[in-house]
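Key result, reporting period 2: structure in, sequence out.
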């Protein structure tokens, strides 16, 4: 495939990517505004540590993971090595930021004496994170 012509970009891809980025940034901004206005903000060394969780999950598991999935479509005419590196970098950042969000929950629960993994939300979230981690490890 080295001598083959690069495939044409699908019609409307730029518009779809622009909409997805706009929606992702809107979600990040509204999450940040919600945390700032109604939940008191975000801080690691206080009772606000739990608020780190939703911000990290939206940034990592939604925004960065979505961008990592789009890399091969958006940069289809770039060298494969470059797109693979960017894809891996975005997935790695998503994993790292999501891990910070999970640690924030466990640390907040430990500080307040709340048991861990007591809700369906926590079990489904942990399952999603572990499956995401396993997918990255087993590729």
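The corresponding designed sequence is given below.
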């Amino acid at each position: 495939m080295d001598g083959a012509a690069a495939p044409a970009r699908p019609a409307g891809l730029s518009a779809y990517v622009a909409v997805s980025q706009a929606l992702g940034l809107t979600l990040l901004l509204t999450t940040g505004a919600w945390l700032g206005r109604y939940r008191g903000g975000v801080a690691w060394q206080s009772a606000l540590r739990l608020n780190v969780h939703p911000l990290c999950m939206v940034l990592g598991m939604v925004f960065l993971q979505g961008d990592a999935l789009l890399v091969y479509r958006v940069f289809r005419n770039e060298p494969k090595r470059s797109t693979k590196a960017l894809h891996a970098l975005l997935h790695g950042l998503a994993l790292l930021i999501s891990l910070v969000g999970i640690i924030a929950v466990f640390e907040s629960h430990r500080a307040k004496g709340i048991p861990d993994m007591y809700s369906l939300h926590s079990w489904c979230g942990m399952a999603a994170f572990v499956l995401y981690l396993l997918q990255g490890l087993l590729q």
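DSSP finds four helices and no strands in the chain. Residues 80-112 form the longest helix (33 residues). This case is discussed further under Risks and Mitigation.
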